[in-house]
């Protein structure tokens, strides 16, 4: 069936609707026999060329591809966001670890300075004690020599 056949079927359907009785006094609503209207619609459908149904199938497939692509895109975006969060958290962990390492190193340097200062103070006290002891011994040696020399000169 060609385009004029479809147009005549549409005219027939339009006439069927216009010839229907108004429903409950409302001119915008009509009562019609459903069977003849459905028969006309079926004839219109049958008159469409095969290419039309193929085109509709292609449109449906395209829509499915678009939906699949959008879903895949959303999945990739979500994966990228998750990866970014993981990388950011790993970088934060590294930053925290570096900060802790710097703190430990600073604490170790401070402890080393304190230990060195304490060791130097201790060594100074030990040397002072040794010096005092040596001064005392030296004084004792000098007195002993003086006594010895005093006894020898008599």
What does it look like?
With 154 residues, this protein is mainly α. The chain has a domain of 48 residues. It has a two-stranded antiparallel ribbon. The radius of gyration is 55 Å and the shape is rod-shaped. The N and C termini lie far apart (163 Å). The model has no long low-confidence stretch (mean pLDDT 89).
Short synopsis of the structure:
The chain is mainly alpha-helical and 154 residues long. 87% of the residues lie in helices and 6% in strands. Helix 1 packs antiparallel against helix 2.
Number of strands: 2
The amount of beta strand, in percent, is: 5-15%
Low-confidence stretches: none
The largest sheet is: 2 strands, antiparallel
Shape, principal axes of CA atoms: rod-shaped
Mean pLDDT level: 89
Instruction: Provide the helix percentage.
Output: over 70%
Q: How are the strands of the biggest sheet laid out side by side?
A: 1-2
The radius of gyration is: 55 Å
Number of helices: 3
SS content category: mainly alpha
| Strand and helix order | HEEHH
- Span from first to last CA? 163 Å
Which terms would index this structure?
single chain, 154 residues, mainly alpha, two-stranded antiparallel ribbon, rod-shaped
């Amino acid at each position: 069936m060609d385009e004029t056949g479809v147009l005549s079927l549409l005219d027939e359907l339009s006439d069927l609707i216009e010839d229907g009785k108004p429903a409950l006094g409302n001119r915008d609503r009509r009562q019609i026999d459903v069977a003849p209207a459905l028969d006309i619609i079926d004839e219109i459908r049958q008159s469409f060329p095969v290419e039309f149904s193929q085109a509709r199938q292609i449109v449906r497939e395209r829509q499915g591809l678009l939906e699949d692509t959008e879903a895949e895109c959303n999945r990739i975006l979500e994966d990228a966001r998750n990866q970014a969060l993981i990388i950011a958290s790993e970088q934060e962990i590294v930053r925290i670890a570096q900060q802790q390492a710097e703190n430990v190193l600073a604490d170790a340097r401070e402890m080393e300075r304190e230990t060195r200062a304490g060791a130097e103070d201790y060594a100074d006290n030990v040397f002072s004690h040794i010096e005092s002891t040596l001064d005392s011994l030296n004084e004792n040696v000098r007195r002993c020599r003086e006594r010895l020399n005093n006894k020898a000169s008599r």
